[in-house]
Amino acid sequence: MKAILAFEAAARHGSFGAAALELNLTPSAISHQIRSLEESLGISLFHRVGRVVELTDVGRNYAESVSEGISVIAAGTRSIERTGKSDILTIHTVPSFGTQWLMRRLSRFSAQFPEVDLRLNASVSPVNLLAEEADFSIRYGPTFPDAGVVITPLPAETIVVLCAPQLAEKRALRKPADLNPQTLIHSEVNLYTWRDWQRDHPGTQLKLDRGPRFDRSFMAISAAMDGTGVGLESRLLVEREVEEGRLLLPFGNEGPSMVCHHLCFLKAKAHLPKMKAFRDWLFDQLASSTS
C-alpha cells in the first residue's frame, strides 16, 4: 500500500521530489517504493531520464485506476465522517402500518438501540431487497418470496367495527342490524370488507353500494374520527385512537382474526446484529400490543 501511495503521488505531481514532500519522505524512498512496485508488477511505470520522470503508457492507465480507487476510499471516509459511526437500518413499510402503528413506536427502538439509526420509507410499491433498497420490508396482503428472501407473517390482527363516539351515541349502535341504515366507510384494499362482514352477520342488509371509499386505511380511519361514517379496520391500527377516546368500538374488541402483514428480509443478512435487534424488538412490541 505504501508503494501504491508513493506511485499515485509521483504520477499526480510528475515528480518524485514533489511526491516526497507530500508524503514526508525522501526522494530516494519514493524511488525505492516505486521500483519495488514495478518489480512486483513486472512492468515499468515511469520513463527515467536523469532527474525527469514520465509515465509510461501502462503507468498512465494504472495511475488512473489507482487514483479512482483512492477517490472511492476517500469518499467512503467522508461519508462516515458526515453520518457518524452509527449503523443505519432502512425499513420499508406500507403507509397505513407505518403511520398508524410503527412510526409512533420507533423512539422506543432508538432508546433501546442508540447505536442504530433508523431510516423509514413508506409506499405501496414493493422494494427490491436483493438490490439492498431496504433492510426490511413490511408488506400487506399475500406476499410471494423472491429467491433468498425470508417472509415472516406478523401476528394475526382482529378486524373491528369503529366510529366516532358522538356518532355511536347519536345512532344508538348496539347490535349488527343497527348498521343497516348507516353510512359505511370503505377501505378498498383491505382483505376483509363490509361485504364479508355482512356475510358473517346474517340478517343485516348494509348499504354496500354507498359511502366514501379510500385506498389507504389511515385515510379511512381519519374519516371515521371525523364522524363521516362507520369504519371496518384492524384493531392494531386504531389502538391509540381507541385508547384516547377518539374512536369507539360499538360491538367490542372481538371480530374475525387474520394475518394481514408480513416482514420480509434477506436470509443472507439475517445474522447481522441490527437485523436481529429490530426483528426481536418488532415482535415484542406486537406481542404487547392489542391485535
How would you describe what is shown here?
The protein has 291 residues and is of the alpha/beta class. The protein is built from eleven helices and twelve strands. The protein has helices at 2-13, 16-23, 27-41, 57-83, 95-102, 106-112, 165-171, 194-200, 217-225, 239-243, 273-288; strands at residues 46-49, 52-55, 87-93, 116-122, 136-140, 149-153, 157-162, 186-187, 213-214, 231-234, 257-258, 261-266. A five-stranded mixed beta sheet has the order 4-3-5-12-6. The longest helix has 27 residues, at 57-83.
Question: What are the salient characteristics of this protein?
Answer:
291 residues; alpha/beta; Arc Repressor Mutant, subunit A; D-Maltodextrin-Binding Protein, domain 2; 3 domains; five-stranded mixed sheet; three-stranded antiparallel sheet
- Quick one: CATH superfamily of the largest domain? Periplasmic binding protein-like II
- The mean pLDDT is 92
- Kindly state the number of beta strands: 12
Q: What's the helical proportion of residues?
A: 40-55%
- The secondary-structure element order is HHHEEHEHHEEEEHEHEHEHEEH
Low-pLDDT parts are none
Q: Describe the biggest sheet?
A: 5 strands, mixed
CATH architecture of the largest domain: 3-Layer(aba) Sandwich
CATH topology of the largest domain: D-Maltodextrin-Binding Protein, domain 2
State the name of the first-level CATH class of the largest domain: Alpha Beta
Strand content: 15-25%
Structural class of the secondary elements?
alpha/beta
Per DSSP, the total helix count is: 11
